[in-house]
Design a protein that fits this description.
The chain is mainly beta. The protein has a single domain, classed as Jelly Rolls (Sandwich), CATH 2.60.120. About 10% of the residues lie in helices and about 50% in strands. It contains 2 helices and 17 strands. It has a 17-stranded mixed sheet that branches. Strand 6 and strand 7 form a beta hairpin. The N and C termini lie far apart (about 105 Å). About 25% of the residues are buried.
């Protein structure tokens, strides 16, 4: 009888120790830090016609995240809802979706990318010439079109856009369009110790105006 009682007591103690060992694993996970709580920016497809996300056909309601690649076929269109505004890809356009902190970015590869009702803290267009976004912290409506390997056209429809590349800044006011090129400096730095210097590049631009006959001039 004493043996049975002792065995029962040992079993109860062992069970209690096991419960104590398991208890930490049943506790709630620690609260996320501020950095973890900051959600990555994303977009939702509002309209898709002859458009793709990666290798799949784009469809309304699909979520687009940083790291996704987007493209449209000739005659196609893709519209995304971002925050309280929209981003659109025109016909025969390709772009890579990126992020900079909590800012959603579209690195344009070809074609036309535009946005409406978004600030520079919500959306930016990355180009070889620099970063294009709404100016002054205010929402704007505009677009960027790739016209050559080092050439773009920036158009502002409502509000102003800004192009930033290093120390160079271009403000495009509402109703204006600018043709912007990335060109090498006239002469590279002098050779040193037989090392061939790299060319430095800078931006040049000219405004595009609509003539009285309705054509576009520079």
């Amino acid at each position: 009888m004493r043996f049975c009682s002792r065995s029962l007591l040992i079993a109860l103690i062992s069970s209690g120790m096991l419960t104590l060992q398991l208890q930490p694993s049943l506790q709630a996970a620690p609260a996320p830090t501020d950095a973890q709580a900051t959600a990555a920016p994303f977009a939702v497809v509002a309209l898709a016609d002859l458009a793709h996300i990666g290798n799949a056909n784009a469809a309304g309601g699909t979520t687009v995240h940083p790291g996704d690649t987007l493209d449209t076929a000739p005659g196609g269109e893709l519209r995304l809802t971002v925050a309280n505004g929209q981003v659109y890809l025109g016909s025969d356009t390709a772009a890579n979706i990126l992020r900079s902190g909590t800012i959603l970015q579209a690195a344009i590869v070809r074609g036309t990318v535009g946005f409406s009702s978004l600030t520079d803290q919500q959306f930016q267009i990355v180009t070889p010439e620099g970063i294009v976004a709404a100016a002054g912290g205010l929402p704007a409506y505009g677009q960027v079109t790739i016209t050559g390997p080092n050439d773009i056209v920036i158009s502002a429809y409502t509000g102003a856009l800004v192009l930033n590349r290093g120390s160079q800044t271009l403000i495009v006011k509402a109703g204006q369009s600018y043709y912007v090129s990335l060109v090498p400096d006239p002469q590279p730095p002098q050779r040193k110790a037989g090392v061939v210097p790299a060319y430095n590049y800078h931006l040049v631009w000219r405004i595009i105006v609509v003539s009285a006959a309705g054509g576009i001039g520079y």
